[in-house]
Protein 1
Amino acid sequence: MKLLFLCMLLCMGSAQAEEIAHNTKVNEWLITNAMVVVGVGTPAEGPKDIHIKQGKIQQIQSSREDSELRKAGLKTIDAKSGYVLPGFINMHVHTMYKRAGIEMAQPYQHYLWLANGITTIRDLGSDLDETLKQREQSAKHEIIAPRMFVYPGIWGNHLEKDLEKTIKNYQKKGVDGLKFGMMDKQTFTSASKIAKKYGLKVANHVGVEDMNAWDNINAGTTTIEHWYGVPDAALHGVQNFPPDMNYSNELHRFRYAGRLWREADLDKLDSVLQGMVDADVAWNPTLVIYEASRDLQRATSSPWFNDYLHPGLEKFFQPSADSHGSFFWGWTTTDEVFWKNNYQIWFKALRDFADKGGIITTGEDAGYIYQVFGFGLLRELQLQQEAGFHPLEVIKHATVNGAKVLGQGDQLGQVRIGYKADLIIVNGNPLADLSVLWPRNIPTMTGDETTGGIVWTLKDGIPYHVPTMLKAVREMVRKARKENPIDYLVQ
Ligand SMILES: [Zn+2]
């Protein structure tokens, strides 16, 4: 009897210690000793054990050696008092299969997104058929990739009958929504009406057009991307452009964008923000994609370039009139100073918008302007903290809010019973320092190399081991550099 008892203890002990392996589908398993950040803005709780069953969170309970769950001998990941958060939702990505003429085959992006904690992406324009195929493969776990929502882009001005044809065709292909970019008022109004008819959500990148955020409010646009259109709706007339301003010149475009927020009338801006809140228009600011405008030196010397910058991106980022957003050939200190001030007004508008009840999400738009996939989103989190949001709110923007805007708020974006087990396990406390989310081989802000890093990312309860994926990415980058020797290194 005693022997049997001893054996039971030992057997259970060894079963408990068995760690689940990278990319294995296990019906039922356990995360132990986790500090849990639910995602809704409440403080961390723990240590807790999280029981995962059939890809969903089945139970969350206080960690106890003698609990029934522990005794069940399930496969386990011991979080070792690290933090468990909902996986991040990246609301602005472009899946890229080639950059600057250089092949950039998957899983380069997929691994980088997962490794940086991103379990869901909203693709706002890429090779549609290929990305739809990958959406299905990801849903069936045939590839290691985040969950995908696909919104193909419609850019510029079109006749209503052509818009109808295009949107109908997209809907037939099974898209999740649409991205509209730089349309005049007439095109935007027609396109919004047709999108509504086909039941499709709309993400809108407004340009300098005869439309602005008031048109988004009237049309009930799902998200305003970036920020254009918001201060534009609060101007007295048009922006004070110099006579030689040429909108086709990207140096001009980005330069004078940096002088836009200061021209907004703050009372008018207040009504615009209230209008967005009332019409349920969410805001996906992508602060990160303009960071080079306010600090070129920082943007061009990111610590992840050494190991993770694909030569296709590196080539594309070089100042050139041919690559969108690579406008730095004539950038000046004065431009940076204007942009630094621009950010302060933008930050304040975001806080006011959130105070009124507005929904802010997180997105990176990487692949442009020195931003690398996944790392871009983590930098976005830091910038949202800089805008004045508590890290708990920033995490809410990246999880709960994204899920809500995607129409998935009842199953994604929270560490909560019944929700999909899309989670990250971090070796450290991101509430104390968001830079602990950076990959393990990149020192945190404090230079600490003994902690930090997302160790596991889960999608549908399947655990992906981050160091394993990052090692594969480093190999892909080394190989691509060898095949595409280029004689400049961004840093
Ligand atoms: Zn974009």
Protein 2
Amino acid sequence: MQNQLRHEILPNQSHDERARQAFAQSLKLHLAAKVVQGNRDVYERRVRPEFERQQGRPPKDRREVAGGMRKEPYYQLWGALQRTSQEICWNSVLESIERQLPDMAQRAQPPENPIGSLTLDTSVEQPIYMSALDIHCMPGGYATERMADDVSAGALYDRGVYIYAMGGFGADNGAMGRTTIDVFRQLFPDRSPLRILDLGCTVGHSTLPWAEAYPGADVHAVDVSASVLRYGHARSEALGVEVNFRQANAERLPYEDASFDLIVSHILLHETSTKAIRNILAECHRLLKPNGVTLHVDLSLYGGMDPFEAFMLDWDTQANNEPFWTAYREMDPKTLMTDAGFTAESVVSAHISRTGLAAHVFSDNRDAGGRKNWQCIGAVKAAKLETSETVA
Ligand SMILES: C[S@@+](CC[C@H](N)C(=O)[O-])C[C@H]1O[C@@H](n2cnc3c(N)ncnc32)[C@H](O)[C@@H]1O
């Protein structure tokens, strides 16, 4: 397996820390490649026949699958191992970060002549959907400040997500951005956006590929967390990529109307809430120039999905501190986009089947557990604005 791309800000690892992190990654890979599939056998051989015997028909949705599956010892064992692997993954990284916190904050100080920028705003507060719990069991979530000029949440995400994704987001964790660029180019082959905004950028894993793909573009990236932005700015400077990072809530953005050609997000929406998604998409509509495009890559939606697969995907809501994961998957792209002001004809929805994601585990549109992975939803702002709208 490839190693993570090293850059000046990536936390160092001692021999023992490296060994623990390698174990966490191998355990995750083993569960994804060898163990999770056993649940399908349990379902086909025991749970489904028993349901059919009682009801005279197969389960029609994930809730009906859940009744039988949750009682199965194999499912319980897999779930316990999966949860344990999450905790080991984050903890193996956190202990190495805590040891080098002051040094990392020092290394992440912005250079004298940065090529990009970092704008922090202490008045921006964490929304409740972030502060109420440690998302996907990541200790402290994205916005915990452990010291002045803290970068620890950014460091934890950078290293931790590489292990979490089993290296499947690429050496630079950038495959999600590159994949969305592919989708954009396939859908809009003649476009070359000049002003791009990435929402919920964390440390810029997906933002940097956009800046590299469109070198003349003015690339902006926002997040509510100062810690991830400090780290992200230092990382992009270390990698020599120009990005303007800003602390802001994507539900209420500090940019002028009609000021971007393209607005994207990568795995942001499912970590917010129904209300927040509606606010974020309405902001996209406000901020796009006429004919501008918005694209959001995130979890695959449940529409049309096999009930067993949908049930398996629910696990993260039940056991991995992903409270909104299921609710997001139940949404309908057309309703979301038209409610935000886009026309129904302009809505796009693309399953990502040819991806650079986790090539060693995933094939086509599935991962090793048979689970569908990503879906890109979006829309184009009407070229002619309604009379009630104003253009800056
Ligand atoms: C899963 S991470 C996104 C990963 C990142 N886009 C990438 O591709 O690497 C979710 C991020 O969204 C941020 N976030 C959540 N709600 C937000 C909001 N309302 N406004 C801005 N950022 C938000 C979190 O702080 C976190 O950094």
